[in-house]
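fyi for ur records
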Amino acid sequence: MEIIICAAIVGGIGLILSIALVLASKFLAVKQDETFTKVRACLPGANCGACGYSGCDGYAQALASGQTDKTNLCVPGADAVSKALSDTLGTEFCDVIEQVAVVNCVGTCNVAKKPVELGGLQSCAAASLLPTSADGCAYGCLGLGDCAAVCPENAICLDNGIAHIDTRKCIGCGLCMRTCPRKVISLIADVEQTIVACSNKEKGAVTRLKCTSGGIGCGKCERNCPSGAIKVVNNLAHINHDLCDGCDKCAAGCPVGCIIKSDFSGYHRFK
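which gave:
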């Protein structure tokens, strides 16, 4: 009888607590912001951080709460997502500047000496912590594929010691750029056609000893540019794409071939 009484008491307590939890979930529940739910549904869910927020939830919360009214921050979603957000929030449509990632290094195994003894390492992040050899480029691609590992579109492959990006697959999320410990990956608007495929800031004579395709800071590109779009700073050429008219004189005249002109159109133009 005592066992039955104890079981009944425990069962009764459990029943009371269950009822209390049901009532609490009903009357004390925090109502979800319907605007947030609708906005979040417009976003692709890549959580890449290209928008400048922690992820899609962070961006959706900022839009729903009025912290920002910029609907064109989702580069991977491009104009389609911006249009959906504008329609949902009742704001004016904002055009998205589609971007692609490019590798600012042409230091393949054929032309460049590796900066470190990799010793079986499989991570660029780990290799970047090793001492750099005197005859190796301390600015080039390590070629171990940390960027390829984080790419959600499999747009990056490794070939002949460096990373290569297929811009036709690139959505411009920037995860590879933020992952690269050497910062040899950058984002450009996919309408641009000219890049400097070198990141070495050493003097030309030193660079040539380490990579025969590295920039030498000779300034020929700067002198040949009719629009003043190129400046050599710290022995490295930099292109101001706002001024560049795509004339190709810099690429055609580069004595080492580290300035490349090509069609960098991204995923959004071919989907």
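The CA atoms of residues 148 and 154 lie 7 Å apart. thats all i got for now
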